[in-house]
Amino acid sequence: MKNLAKAISLLLHPIFIPSYTALFIVWSLPNIFGYITSVQAVFVLRTILLYTLLYPLLIVFLMKKLDFIDSYNITDRKQRILVFIPMAFMFMWTYIVLYKAQTPHITTSMMMGCTIALFFSMITNIMIEKISIHSIGMGGMFAMVLFTSGISIYNISWALMLVILLGGLVGTARLVLQAHQPREVYNGYMLGFLCMASAMLL
Length: 202
What we know:
Layout: H1 2-11, H2 17-28, H3 30-33, H4 39-65, H5 77-100, H6 105-127, H7 133-149, H8 157-176, H9 182-201
């Protein structure tokens, strides 16, 4: 059971969520991006993949090698802050790159939502308690899919149900692994959804 929970936690790790979400948005909105292989779509996907996945993975790897963090799970609240700071910078930089390139509003809003969520999770982690970054990611993804369903030319109600299912799975996995208390998971869902929804409405 714990091995399955670890696999789910890895596949739905928050570091992958911006890339998953960007790929879904580009695919589901051909009326905005054109074909998924269009110049604009490729630029958006490449930028998000590079700055929110590849560079952050390199940063975490280096932090582990330099003993800034004990493990890649980063369960210690103080060590989480050390990781959050460069992640927040990378997310904000991604927003700036996409904004300067005049990409569709939905992409810049997504990155702004990610940045806001990371900022608030850092504050919560410092001042209140540890919060589930996994559930923050899934809450944000649900908000994005919900918004996208209203403007997509496709019927993507299946995607909403899928994200709800995956969100439940990842939350359960975190509890099975005893990585969080239930309230930390529930608060993560709420924070992720509210931050992303707020960014989309700005």
